[in-house]
Each structure stands twice: as structure tokens, then as C-alpha cells.
């Protein structure tokens, strides 16, 4: 989808990375080099509820494991709820700046998702959970949707409200909507939620009869993630608590009374992989080849195999 060189894309995002690093210093025990134990709790697989894990690696203070039942990748231990909430409420507000600096890239992703939503349901009320400054809602509003948002970052919520969207600076459970939603969207949010099962069940009664839940999440099936592993930006020691394989998403959806109606992958990361295979920094290497791997495998092949960097899925009640 985006053929710019990886270093040009990620140079713009380095500011957010540096802000994340600066913010996380407070969580580290300088004696051990790991997060303070008082901030953490252990858990079983958030999908299977089984305690059958394979240790993968440590990254950014986080211990990443893989479920041997559903191929889910998750942080174990993970921040306790109150500590994770505090982190998000006090975190930087640079996400909206990053989106604005690469507006064509994000607009293309958002439009692809909106097209999928509009194929699955009728235009009506749309709710974006974790809406940031409302860039996706701007696009939906132009397509005649009535736009609602939930955003925990106070500054970004105020940006979105100023654009005319109905945005709540609260948890979803704290909001009483007086309309049903024809679509509920989670753009790069679901991987931040510790209990995806509880959240899907919480959203279900908010949907209209033919309403859908649209999710974009990093894919544990991604070729880039499998090759780069701990070098991959997908893996984050605090925030990306759950990284789903398609098998895990499908299993979770079924448990909650949903079926996966549409499923695609987006973003190839071919340039990133080529940098890494050339012994360079995957995100700041010098490759100009963002189109093929091994001079034969292209973006079309990658997405046909559902091995793109992120999944876009539509869930409908079964």
C-alpha cells in the first residue's frame, strides 16, 4: 500500500518512539533492569484461558510468550489494570501528530476499512473506540455517518470534539449512548485491551440489528513479525498486550457469539524485511526495494497468503 522507503516513513515516527522511551523510565527497576514487580500480574492465555505458553523473547521490558493452543502472542506478566490505565491517561499525545504527518498513508488505510464497513452494513451511526484526534471519524463524517468516539487521552479527545464529533473522554463502560451503532471500530486498539473477550461482549449490546465490529490489529501471522521477531515494532513491552493470530481471533469471536465476515491483511513491510535480510536496521536501512522479496514475492502474494503486517476484520453476530 505504501511504497515509500522504510527510513522515510519511520523517521517521522521516531519522535513518538523517543517519547515512549522517556515515559517508560519511571516503570523500570534500575537494580534489575525490568519493570517493578508491583506493577505486574501473571495470566493465562487471554483467548484460550490455558496456561500452555512458549517463551519467545524479552523486549522493552516485556516478556513475550506464545500460546501453544491458539498461537496467540501476549505479554506475561502484564501491567495491572490500574497501572495500565494510569499509563494511557498520562501518556504523550503524539499519535494525532504522526497521523497528520503521514496523512495519505492513514487515509488510504482508513478508506479501505470504511469501504469494508459500508459493504457489511448500512450507513448510520459509527463509533470509533480510541479515536485519537478523529481522523477516521472525519472520513466517516464526509460519507454521511453520524460520528461518535471514545478516547482516553484528554488532549486528543478535545481535538476530535472540536471537529464536531461526539467524543467521550471516558471508558466505554462509563458511556450511556442513546442510539444503537451500525458500526463500532477499533483501529489499532484491540491489541491494547487485556481482556478482548469481555470487551467484545461489552460492545455487543451497543450494535444495531445488522451492526458490525470492525477491527484493525497487528497480525501475529505477519511475515515481517515472524522474520524480525523482537526487532519488529509490533512487539511492545507495555501497550501491545495481545497480538492475535487469525486462529486466535476466530476462536475469540466464536466464544463471544460473532463470526468473521471479512478478513484481509494490509501493509506489506517488504522494505523493512529487505533491510533486515541485508544486515541493516530494518526501519532505518538504505533499501530502495519495497516491492519484492527475493525478486519474486510481491505485495499481492503476501496479502493473498494473509501475511501482511496488520489484519482488517469485520465481525457480525452469529
Question: Overview of this structure, please?
Answer:
This protein is of the alpha/beta class and 318 residues long. It has one domain: 3-Layer(aba) Sandwich (Rossmann fold). Helices cover 34% and strands 24% of the residues. The protein is built from eleven helices and 15 strands. The strands form four sheets. The protein has a seven-stranded mixed sheet, with helices on both faces. A four-stranded antiparallel sheet has the order 2-3-4-11, with no helix packed on it. Strands 1-5 form a two-stranded antiparallel ribbon. Helix 5 links the parallel strand 6 and strand 7. Helix 4 crosses helix 5. The radius of gyration is 19 Å and the shape is globular. The model has no long low-confidence stretch (mean pLDDT 91).
List the topology elements.
Blueprint: H1 6-24, E1 40-41, E2 53-59, E3 62-67, E4 73-75, E5 78-79, H2 81-89, H3 95-101, H4 103-120, E6 125-129, H5 135-142, E7 146-150, H6 154-162, E8 166-168, E9 181-187, H7 196-203, E10 207-218, H8 223-228, E11 242-243, H9 246-255, E12 258-266, H10 270-277, E13 292-293, E14 297-298, H11 299-304, E15 310-317
Parallel strand pairs: 6-7, 6-9, 7-8, 9-10
Antiparallel strand pairs: 1-5, 2-3, 3-4, 4-11, 10-15, 12-15, 13-14
Helix pairs in contact: 4-5
Amino acid at each position: 500500500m505504501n511504497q515509500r522507503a522504510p527510513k522515510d516513513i519511520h523517521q517521522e515516527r521516531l519522535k513518538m518512539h523517543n517519547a515512549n522511551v522517556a515515559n517508560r523510565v519511571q516503570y523500570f527497576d534500575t537494580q534489575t533492569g525490568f519493570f517493578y514487580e508491583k506493577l505486574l500480574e501473571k495470566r493465562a492465555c487471554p483467548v484460550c484461558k490455558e496456561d500452555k505458553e512458549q517463551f519467545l523473547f524479552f523486549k522493552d521490558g516485556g516478556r513475550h510468550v506464545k500460546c501453544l493452543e491458539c498461537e496467540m502472542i501476549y505479554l506475561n506478566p502484564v501491567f495491572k489494570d490500574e497501572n495500565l490505565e494510569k499509563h494511557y491517561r498520562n501518556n504523550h499525545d503524539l499519535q494525532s501528530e504522526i497521523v497528520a504527518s503521514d496523512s495519505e498513508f492513514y487515509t488510504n488505510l482508513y478508506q479501505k476499512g470504511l469501504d469494508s464497513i459500508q459493504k457489511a452494513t448500512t450507513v448510520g451511526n459509527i463509533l470509533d473506540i480510541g479515536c485519537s484526534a478523529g481522523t477516521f471519524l472525519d472520513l466517516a463524517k464526509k460519507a454521511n455517518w453520524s460520528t461518535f468516539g471514545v478516547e482516553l487521552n484528554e488532549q486528543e479527545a478535545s481535538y476530535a470534539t472540536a471537529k464536531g464529533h461526539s467524543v467521550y473522554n471516558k471508558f466505554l463502560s462509563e458511556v450511556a449512548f442513546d442510539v444503537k451503532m451500525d458500526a463500532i471500530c477499533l483501529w489499532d486498539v484491540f491489541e491494547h485491551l487485556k481482556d478482548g473477550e469481555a470487551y467484545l461482549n461489552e460492545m455487543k449490546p451497543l450494535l444495531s440489528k445488522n451492526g458490525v465490529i470492525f477491527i484493525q490489529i497487528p497480525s501475529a501471522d505477519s511475515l515481517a513479525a515472524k522474520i524480525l521477531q523482537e526487532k519488529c515494532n509490533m512487539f511492545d513491552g507495555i501497550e501491545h498486550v495481545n497480538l492475535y493470530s487469525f486462529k486466535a481471533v476466530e476462536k475469540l469471536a466464536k466464544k463471544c457469539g460473532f463470526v468473521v465476515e471479512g478478513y484481509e491483511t494490509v501493509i506489506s513491510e517488504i522494505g523493512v524485511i529487505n533491510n533486515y535480510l541485508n544486515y541493516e536496521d530494518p526501519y532505518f536501512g538504505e533499501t530502495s526495494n519495497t516491492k519484492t522479496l527475493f525478486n519474486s514475492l510481491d505485495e499481492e502474494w503476501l496479502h493473498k497468503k494473509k501475511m501482511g503486517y496488520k489484519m482488517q476484520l469485520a465481525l457480525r453476530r452469529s
